[in-house]
Amino acid sequence: MLSVAIHSRPGQASTFTRFAFAVETCMIQSMDEEAIEQAADRAAASGHFVEARSMLERAVERNGSSCELWMKLSAMRKASGDIHGALAAVDRSLALEPLDFAALLYRAVLLEALGEPQTGEAFGQALAHAPPEDQIPQPMRSTVHHARTRWTEYQASREERLLRALPTDLDDAERRRSKRFASNISRRTRHFHQEPTDFHYPGMPEIEFHDRDAFPQLAVLEATTADIRAEFDALIAAEAAEMVPYIQYPDRVPLRQWKALNKSRDWTAIHLLQNGQRVETNARHCPRTMAVLDKLDQPRIAGASPNAMFSLLAPRTRIPPHTGVANIRLVCHLPLIVPPDCGFRVGGTTRDWRVGEAFVFDDTIEHEAWNDSDQLRVVFICDLWAPALSATERQSVAAIIAASGPSFAGA
């Protein structure tokens, strides 16, 4: 590589620098790709983008299989005002490495500069391949933040356009499902699958929150809200409750998601029914609650069900995303004490708890909960048969689960 030493008076540096790059450019024919790339880097660092671009054009002619060269050429084309040429170069890089995050992000930026309508989708494609936040280089973070903003705006505008196409004569359930269909298309949400940790019965419908119409017993449960709350209050006031950590696993069990809450008093349970057994210490103080449980369609499986409990979530506590044990049962929540800033997500649907309003969900679909308030949150929880099972199927799964041994008390 030719090294040019320049000694000049003030005002002459740019002239001599251009001369030095002109000399290097003339010698390009005798350089290998690495030397050309280094010369282009020096030119770019000095602000001579046209010269750097010329060198890189020659380099990719010799070696068109280098993603790095194509990306540098794209940058120089953009710097010299050729946005379309820059886009063509980054596309060549992506043809070699289609999942490269930096190239995908840069491509979206170029499309935005050109005012192309596919800009929002391009930002989404880039973000789908983003590394963890702490691995994003600092100089790139503002661009990533911009990308997230543009992607969110694009999703919202696309979903709004889709929703305008909905018929006006849909009933509530049809409209709810249609809205979710639109949000899945816009990729603001996605389809979550059942992922039971132990027992998966084939062919069960994957529904995050089930329609109330399938559970007429919810009205009976809701009508007893005040009684259930009163018995909970009395149990706590008398300090008679046997309160245990909701999550209790041996430390050796490979369940990393529960590390923060395992054996923690931040999430506790007062069991009335556990793995099919009445917990007399607590149940004897809650006769009206036990009476209403007798009216519910709970699974009766030896060593596994029915289950019913008060679930207590301490202030500033979050339950991480997780899935339940068996898809043959569903879980019912009856909120009793709900301070502000509490929430619950199942799959792609997030909802607030409302005191006295019960709902049924599939706990084998990923779900999480949080209490960001400074007060205790209390929910009454019980399990119910999944209505998709016939009477004979209920007998079948009960026999198989009972024979397998493990319980599924958690909800």
Helix content: 40-55%
CATH class of the largest domain: Mainly Beta
Low-confidence stretches: 1-13, 15-30
Outline type: elongated
Which whole number gives the mean pLDDT?
87
Rg estimate, integer Å: 31 Å
Question: What share of the residues does DSSP label as strand, in percent?
Answer: 5-15%
Superfamily (CATH H level) name of the largest domain: B-lactam Antibiotic, Isopenicillin N Synthase, Chain
Give me the secondary-structure category. Answer: alpha+beta
Number of extended strands: 11
- Supply the number of structural domains: 2
The span between the termini is 70 Å
Tell me which CATH architecture of the largest domain applies here: Sandwich
Q: State the CATH topology of the largest domain.
A: Jelly Rolls
Main beta-sheet strand count, sense and barrel state: 7 strands, antiparallel
The secondary-structure element order is HHHHHHHHHHHEEEHHEEEEEEEEH
Number of helices: 14
Walk me through what this model shows.
A hairpin with a 2-residue loop joins strand 7 and strand 8. The longest helix is centred in the middle third of the chain and has 23 residues, at 141-163. The model is unreliable at 1-13 and 15-30 (pLDDT under 50). The protein has helices spanning 13-26, 33-45, 49-62, 67-79, 83-96, 101-114, 119-127, 141-163, 172-185, 217-223, 225-237, 280-283, 287-293, 391-404, and strands at 244-245, 267-274, 277-278, 308-313, 317-322, 329-337, 342-346, 349-351, 359-361, 367-371, 377-385. Helix content is 42%, strand content 14%. The strands form two sheets. Strands 1, 2, 3, 4, 6, 9 and 11 form a seven-stranded antiparallel β-sheet that branches. A four-stranded antiparallel β-sheet has the order 5-10-7-8, with no helix packed on it. The protein is an alpha+beta fold and 411 residues long. It has 14 helices and eleven strands. The chain is elongated, with a radius of gyration of 31 Å. Helix 8 packs antiparallel against helix 9 (172-185). It has two domains: 13-156, Serine Threonine Protein Phosphatase 5, Tetratricopeptide repeat (Alpha Horseshoe), CATH 1.25.40; 212-404, Sandwich (Jelly Rolls), CATH 2.60.120.330. The N and C termini lie far apart (70 Å).
